[in-house]
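Justification of resources, computational component.

The compute hours requested in this renewal are based largely on the per-chain cost of generating structure records like the one below. Each record pairs the submitted sequence with a full structure-token output. That output is archived, and it is also reused by downstream analysis tasks.
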Amino acid sequence: MRLRPAPLEDWLRDYYFAAEIDISSSGVQPYSMAELRAKTGLDHGQIDALTFDDGYSLGAPAVRAAIAERWGDGEPDKVMTTSGSSEAISLVLTALLRPGDEVVVVQPGYHLLVEFAVALDCVVKTWQLDADAGWAASREELEQLVTDRTRAIIVNFPQNPTGATLGEEDLRSLVQCAEQVGAYILWDAAFADLTYETDPLPDISMLYSQGISFGTFSKAFGLPGLRFGWSVAPPDVLADCVRIRDYTTLHVSPLIELLARHVLENADCFLEPRLRQARQNRDIVKQWAAATDRVSLVLPAGGVASFPRLDGLSSTDDFCEDLFQRHGVLVVPGSCFGRPGHIRLGFGGATDELTRGLDRLSGALRGAVPG
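The structure output for this chain reads:
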């Protein structure tokens, strides 16, 4: 297994920590440790009482139970805690996929959901979202892609980077399509709790026996540095994941799971303030796009990433480089997602930083030479 470079990570690795203004990110504004303790009631005594012992292969029972209660069917045997959702996704893909398996992936999309299948020598079929139709996912196209040889359909809705999502009717059609051929549905639900016009979709594990979901604290919870994630999956799949984990990370740190348990028990205290902020910021991005020449935006239905096209630029790579070097503003060129005329613009951060970043972005656009 040999993984290709991840253009998104290569771009952010160079610039993320040096940017004056970051409007590139796909997560909400991070919380501090002081804020975490205030929201959860966690005190130093509880932290001091922790023993740095080994942890459970599938996660601490109380943490698994809290996840199963909020996102699953209440059965902790279907839950595995991980170091971010990236570990969960990579473990499940490695456990399930074999060379030659057919896999359907969404594009434009997050690299991990595509590249692991490529590296595992699967036959990868692309379900293209249609920018001209508001990044709609065509049910008819999916039905043409899925065959009796399809092992998995890998999706992330609400979607990164476009912010597109599915309605419940489309979700149930997706389940029916997979069910007809016995394919797994692997659902990256990082943005599940960040929706604007509709309620969050039900977890795929609740709708389909071969549905596997992935969750994380990195996006909606504002705790990316905690590196905590999970998977809700059939127990036999998780058992195969443990066999792989026995050779790699073994388990999540008991310190991380202590913090995670308290966050999970007070989840709405973390989610609701950032969702309110995201709604306000989304309106700002909407107004900015409407008032700015050379910007074509499909307003995201979920998440805190938008994917506007910069009209007149066939590639935004040089523009994004210039925006960072001369204006101190970080966005992600669309080439990182296979759409070079776009940028990923994040709006989950502080409102004043977003406003300043958009002002500088507008100024840079006025001076950008078409090409």
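The CA atoms of residues 19 and 30 lie 16 Å apart. The chain has 14 helices and 14 strands.
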